[in-house]
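quick one if you have a minute, typing this from the bus. theres a chain ive been looking at and ive put its sequence and its fold in token form underneath. please have a look and point out which stretches look like helix strand or loop to you. anything you notice is useful, everything is just below.

***
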Amino acid sequence: MDLNTVLLGVYVLLVGAGLWLLLTRRLPVLFALAFLSAVAYSFPLFMGFAMYPGRGGTFTPTSLIPKAYVVNSAILAAILLAGSCAREQMSAKRRRWRLQGTHLAGWSAMILSLALLAYGVVSAGSDLFSEDKLVVLKATGRGYSLAMVAAFVAVAFAIEMRSRIVLVLALTVLAFDLYIGFRAWTVMAIAVAAVLYLSSGEARREGPRRVNRTLVATLAVLALGVFFYKGIFPNIKAGEFDVAWAKLQDPEFYLASVIIGEPFIVQGVLNEVLLTDYSVSGEHLLNVFLLLLIYTPELGFNVRYFNDYFQEDLFPGTSEFMGMGNNFWAEALSVGGVGGLVMYLGLFIAGLYFATKLLASESRVVRATAASVAVPWAFYIHRNELIVHLSYERQIILVVVSAILGSMLLSEIANALKRSIVPVDSKEPPRAGA
């Protein structure tokens, strides 16, 4: 029995333990999401190989080394251990935060999303509807990107504020984004719906055996559908519906979609970093201070990311035809070795713990805000690098703050209008003894 087989056995045991904790509701919902995402992005460990991109759009399967199993197992173990320790937050007394005039935050985010979407579509022009995703990526600017962030935030607020109209509008915008060829915000909207339901007082009272399994299963099926949509979206955009339908009927299509999917590329990055003992100075992390600014390229700052180093160093020539998914943990190891991995894990778990406490609030606006910020942190961070992910979080926070302030403004305008139309002679007569 070789070392990889033994390490795979350890990894499988951790996955089994995590599933037991998840199904028995012994993990706070954000830790459960982080666990599921970690398993999804480390799925290649079950297969024993990752995919290395090459010149001309080719992919080469490459065996995973033992260190890849060790690192991924350590990540799972840390999430499960920290989640078990944070379980008390699930039963903690729910805090009530009062912030007046925030009941229209969903509408405010939706209006912002529609305005930015209109600007983004006009700016991008016909390139937005190209079947070539690289063309689409170049065409979409900040306006379009922020429109999708606002739609995602609107979903969270619509669910908490029980606003069906806003929810339908936000999902329509995200469906357009999916049609264009992007999946991230749609998947995270599905995740935020699951998080808000499973962390709600209703789900907590029902217990693990009475949770609405139909709703959870539906959300899971939708997430899988969005994953496989990547392989047919060029055909959908080209109007080749017969070709798309033929692909969906072919079992090899699903296998190919998995094999060249993000998890196999992301694990390829980690595998090569470990194999070559790749390291960077960490100078790019100083860009964290630039997150305090907006439009940094226009201000003359040359922002460099981890991807700018590793892709050309480890996979030369690939940047000409594709952008690669990052690996948060590969960056940690490249910057500081085992110490870097421990620091990144500490930062990741601290974020999950703090957000878990906020989700225990009775305030709808606090819960929607916490879910909007924490779901990408728990779910999407495994395939990102630190600065890029923090820039996403900055966008979400800016949209959330704008939505709350916009809601307060709309609320004040509505109250002013109500006061202005009340007739002067409609005042109640003074009460006796007043």
Q: What stands out?
A: The first helix runs from residue 3 to 23.
